[in-house]
Queue: 3 jobs
Job 1
Amino acid sequence: MAVGAEAIFGDSVITTKLDNAISWARESSMWPYIFGTACCAIEFMSVASSKYDISRFGAEVVRFSPRQADLMIVAGTISYKQGPILKRIYDQMSEPKWVISMGACACSGGFYDNYTTMQGIDAIIPVDVYVAGCPPRPEGILDALMKIQEIQKNESIIKDRTTKNFKGRLDA
Amino acid sequence: MKASSKIVPQKISKADSMPKHFEASFANRFSKDENNQYIIAQQYIIEAITCLQIEDNFSILLDITAIDYLTCKHECPSRFALVYILRDTSFLQTVRIKTYLHDAKLEIQSISSLFAIANWAEREVWDQYGICFTNHPNLKRMLNHKEFIGHPLRKDYPITQGQFCTKTDDLMDEMIPKLENKGFTSHEDLMFLNLGPAHPASHGTIRTFCALEGETIISAVAEIGYLHRGFEKSCENHTYNQIIPYTDRLNYCSAILNNIAFAHTVEGMLGVSVPQRAQFIRVLIGELSRIIDHLVCLAANLVDMGALTNYWYLFNPREAVYDLLSKLTGARLTNSYMRIGGMAHDLYDGFNEDLQECIKQIQNGVADTLSLIEHNRIFHDRTQDVGVIKAEKALNLGLSGPNLRASGIAYDIRKTAPYYNYESFDFDIAIGSVGDVYDRMMVRFEEIRQSIRIINQAMKQIPQGPILVADNAISLPDKKDVYGNIEGLMNQFKLIYEGVKVPAMEYYNAIEGANGELGFYIISDGSGTPYKVKVRPPCFPAMAAYADIIEGGMIADAVLTLGSLNIVAGELDR
């Protein structure tokens, strides 16, 4: 039994919450920024090419300007030297934004347990989804993307997404 | 661009290209060690290398590296030694000069005035080992960041001691002198632009800092090290077979060629050669890797100039090869297929049919791409006479592989020092005539065709037989022996826990990687873990030269030049 606007206008309108409408629109138009540094970036090329085709999930508009992107995919090893750059680019992305940590190196340093490799990017930026693998298969990235879509469905535009409690090693 | 096998370097026997002049003029001042390395005192180093370069034609500097003998079992004259590896212009000989540093300040004269590549190579040695090169124009850190304290490849530096970096180098200390040399006293009219390290065309992690006037690059400074992953330090803490997965991630576009290069070098130290069938499999899979490496390079290069369709034409065959490789090795990209003394397992049933299907797809992809670009005016205008490297300069810079061949020099280790029966395969070396972006791309297209020729011949000739060296001290035993008898179990246990025991020696060997001469300099102390491993990555010299090549050109051309040199950060920064 329809009530309110739907009762008056019939099937020509759908009422919903603003949050739901926005996350419905956002779900299939994530704009990724690829922070590709190493082998994982080559696998991301596969994700973007025709066989795995990330555009089926609405995320093919890969932006290389952080200001135009809302999903950061960190694909590859982050060394300590790269750290400040990753942090700076993350800061340049506007809210709301999500981060996928792709592959063993970005998640934990992987088998590069040594003097130059950061042991997980979550030392400097917050991460939403971790993908295991060295490198992960393209399906893994598509799965991570769907997980991000799931996460953003429950977000609200009036709540600040920034994790105020997060304090990275490079935060002043 | 033309294909030719005729312009191979003139036939000179190995004896002719011995460093005769050097041996004559330094008769009483050098000694030869058991590894066939010339040992000379550090005060003669410049004189000796000049003599080798000018009189004996050893005019290609392959690498400079240092050795820290701190934890070495046998006694050494001093803690640190430097090794210079040179190659002669007939490409048949390498010579290694070693000098022990007795000086407490660890100072030695720089040879950067003799070889362009020495500038970066010496910076790396300073960064990693803390050896000072006097008269070096710009001795600063190379792979590690500016705030790093200490020298990580010294044996007393703990492997896991990481140091956070808070600020990126602004590179003005290199840029301002460069601009002053060009007569720019004020920088107000110039615009400074960072190309990378986070830039889609910077191949991941390469940074080029440019001073622009309009869109013309007046001066450029390149910075590397953003993907320095401590390969060499990690090697010193793993057994030989455990290093194979690390080698995958050097040039990750052609992982198996790195596996082969490393395994081949260690087998050389062991004095064994793998069985014929294993050699043929290495040729087959190695050439397939070379093809897919070229496919990525070409696809990315074409995307950089806006020809996006070709990316799909060239990437789909790569996917087909991925499927074949994951069927064969279990992994798409980082295969770790090789082992010291052979490979993980034999080809599977039906491999030949899958391979033929891959080759068909590769040929279609290449043909589709060429039909779009071969006679395309835009493509020609964008690539011809852009980023030119003349033959002589290319040699002096130490380039190798497709980049050197594009400049017209037919140097290919598969021809000059054939391994794995390459001398019996009928294939041509593709060479260019100008050395521009166009030649570098077209040489790669031609090499794909030649690699297919090799694969087809190898597939016809491949013999049956074992794929592992029949030596219990090198190859893992069959699983049925491990579970069935005590000897097999012990062999397995010893090999896994202690690793393959490699005789104590210092050894250099190289194969033709997808990018050029991929060499390993390995020092063994007789145990199952190498004492030191140094990679000679083929794109290191190309990157060292890059900043100078792009100066004076347009910024859009710089992107194409970088793509055509096929810089892969994994092997560049190690």
Job 2
Amino acid sequence: MLLHVNQLSIHFHARQGIVKAVEDVSFDLAEGETLGIVGESGCGKTVTALSLLRLISNPPGIIAGGEIFFQGRNLLKLSEKEMCDIRGNHMAMIFQEPMTALHPVLTVGRQVREPLIVHKKAVRKTAVQDCIRLLKRVRIPDADTRLHDYPHQFSGGMRQRVMVAMGLACNPKLIIADEPTTGLDVTLQAELLEFMKGLTQTEKTALVLITHDLGIVACYADQVMIMYAGRIVEKAPTLELYRAPQHPYTQGLLASIPRLDQDIQQKLRPIEGQPPDMANLPSGCAFHPRCPHAKPRCMRELPKLMQISTGHDVACWMHSR
Amino acid sequence: MKPFILKRILYAFLILFLVSILIFLLGRAGDPLEKAALSTRMGMADSEVVDALKVQFGLDRPLHVQYYLWISNFIRGDWGKSLFYREDVREMFINRLPITLELFAGFVFWSAIIGFPFGFIAALKRNSWIDASLTTGAVIGISIPVFWQAIVMIYLFAVAVHIFPPSGYVPFSEDPWKNLLSIAMPSFILGTHSAGIISRYVRSSLLEVLGQDYIRTAFAKGLRAKAVLLRHAFKPSLIPVVTVIGLEWGYMLAGAFIVEYMFAIPGLGRMCMNAIFAGDFPIIQATLILVAGNIILVNFVVDLLYGFLDPRVRVQ
């Protein structure tokens, strides 16, 4: 197993008290596999991703418990120096806002070749060659001249591709893509995702794909993990999840997106209510105030994540026997 | 980049031209001022003498002709004769300029050597007692008026403990060590304000940069904290700092006048102060032109530095 996350909890110390941004999250990821993490804003998906690279800023954030095994090593036990050798080298992250995530006053070339210089001890000249090769690989036209340009001279889609090139620089075993296609138009989205899917097949790269777009997940992920209020509410192989969603929240998410095979007359059903205040979560199951099936027990007790069939886990009282 | 620089140069000259008109008019502001200025040194001068003087200094001609003569002479290097000292104004400037420049170098030295490290450390040790004390120090440095600080420092370091001379200036050629001692305190006093301002700006600007997404990206690439700081955070954090350094430059000129006066340093500031009291308008005019030129030049340099620090400024 390439990545094994076990009962991960991440807390933030805020003025209102301790915010449990991620609580008791476990998952596995094998080489060449893609895991989709889906949820509303603030459900803990980005925090989970950042914690894999140990990039949670402390203070205010702290990894309160759990284990993250990557290539057999517990990342939470490594020194900062050892962690630096993993970041950008064996595990890379693609951030969601290429506008702000790229350095505004450094040239694109310098930013893309930096991981090579840091990790592969590449000399400048070979690094420049590698950098051109990388930019060509993500299909930046005129890569050999454009690497002298600055991010503001690139279009949004090209900036995102530069981010990807930067992530690919050292051929990482795991790429974490945090909403990589937000703000891109649909054709660019498809192109980028196809490219990353290609990587998982040819390079056996594992991919953590964070998104709130269930459509993307359906096409590109092998496994899907639905998060709500910092916890996993459902985890299943992609086909299984779309065929038979078990958690009311998953069902609600799927009912709220339009489908081609649906009658046009049928209205979309949004999930009632608002996402919860993370500093002040509802008692019991955090979803109960919005859940159409809520029972008294849901208000009192937190349902545990239970396996209902092979690889399909749900945290809901409806499914516990 | 080229049209950008060209445009800035053009602007600089336009501003200098407008300022020169203003300075000229200020120098000739009304007859009464002139009469008062002239008469103070000649007792009750009779009108014939005053008229003769007016002809001698060309004050009887129409204003635009006067301006033309003054500015063309000025550009040619003829800055007129001092009314009071009867010396060539340009000569007087050339003699006093090195002294002010030395004071100036001291000012740059103190404000940089205090301002930058203080700001850096305060940002890195944010919200600690170190940050709190550095910030307090900076605010004190900004708020203390130059003249008061001068009095206190003269008392402490020249009267109570004899480390520095209380006033006066020793040329470098005469005694290098005494020269440094005589310039150390006045330049420090000048630098205090800027050091405070610079450290405040470095702190807040560095903190802002460190909170940016691209810094997180740098960490995600596997860079060590030190490399992130030096290669990614330092350059963009300088952008706002450059602006205040430009502003402080102008402040320093005003401060230099006071400090030179208090420490009896025979530089440009002291000469100009005396000229103002004496109504010696050729000197006042020349000083103002140089001060304005200096500030315009600094603004130009700041603009160029922006272009160097931030590529987004270059494309327009």
Job 3
Amino acid sequence: MSVRTVITGMGVATPHGLDITDFWAATRVGKSAIGPVTRFDVSGYPARLGGEIRGFTAAEHLPGRLVPQTDRVTQLALVAADRAFKDARLDPHDVPADDMGVVTAVTAGGAAFVQDEMRKLFSRGSRHVSAYQSFAWFNAVNSGQISIRHGLRGPTGVLVSEQAGGLDALAQARRRLRKGSALMAAGGFDAPIHPLGWAAELAGGRLSTSGDPERAYLPFDAAARGHVPGEGGALLIVEREDAARARGARAPYAEIAGHAATLDPRPGSGRPPGLRRAIELALADAAADARDVDVVFADSAATARLDREEADALTAVFGPYGVPVTAPKTMIGRLQAGGSAVDVATAVLSIREGLIPPSIHVRPSPDHRLDLVTGQARTASVHTALVLARGAGGFNSALVVRALD
Amino acid sequence: MATQEFTVQDLKRILREGAGAAEAVDLDGDILDRDFEELGYESLALLETGGRIEREFGIELDDEIFADHRTPRTLVEAVNAQLKAAV
């Protein structure tokens, strides 16, 4: 049997806070962090609600040299990384630098940095563009900056599969551990609340244009009308179980037991969507049966077609009302690549506490035949959690998180 | 027209604005003869600093200026020599 991949540290940067304790305290009681966008003047746009990380000042958390060279998304990733390594109680000397790597997912890189520098380019000329534009924008920058800051000199990479990215990054980290790395930092982040990011999300056609924070993002509800975007993500420290024991790591939270990713067929092909296959393959990878799954963290796209597809996949695998399903994203919005990484952190905390956090504001449509946990959290013995994510462009990803016996 | 002068105060301000300051370094301390690298500024930080000096003072610096002038003292002297020559 191959060596298990265990989670030994977690760091989050979400609209529910930068501290994992604050994050869970808000999540477990179903607190909403969705409100009017304040980061830019959103009055001229059809979508005006967001899940913002309020009161975040990079200079309070990061070295002065890093602040001018980083986009907000990188600043959030670096802050989460600091906290994840601290949570893992890792002394950099515990593990050789070449045995540690990082893989992160992102959708739009440092888009706000790009926007600001392009504004200078077009209004004042090329001499006004920051030298840091050379790297601050690109998709690999979060992995690169985390690698430099924490001295991770092993495998480093970046994945772009929109909302599915956070799960795919963790799966890639697991593959790297199986190939011999001792420790990987993995997760996903996005920070799209700025005019350029907003324009891109609007062009995707899935944003809710409701102005009511309690009615805007309602996955699996007959009134579903798109989602509310949020910002942030999560970074997890994952280790080979033997390596974690060798360095005397803290008791791991849980293991990443299985994963699969599939791609939807071309629209109009008549072939079925790939989510069900991703779920079945992930369960097989975890040597788990549908009956072993205690909770599903749903992708929760909140459009009629995508909700239908997800509900169909879940009822096909688990049967109607066959497993508790939840959508904590209803509290903070969809964080693109960050959203699924945050859901993994939430799944881990659910396992630890034996509590399924609620989906808020949703009245599930009986057509979907889902046992959606709504209103308030549900006490449950959670041993195995399935996290689902679907990225715009046809990406499906399923990841199994399991308690360590 | 009087010659514009580039002071070490200007340099410190531009460094802070464009590239930030390392926690371990006190830019208000005795930095005149310390190497930029020792002060925590790598080549990209210096490129950004050079660009800001050029914009603010309306001059064009040689691409090699930071290779030839590794400390605040000699850089300030070199920029001022160029400002004087440009009058």
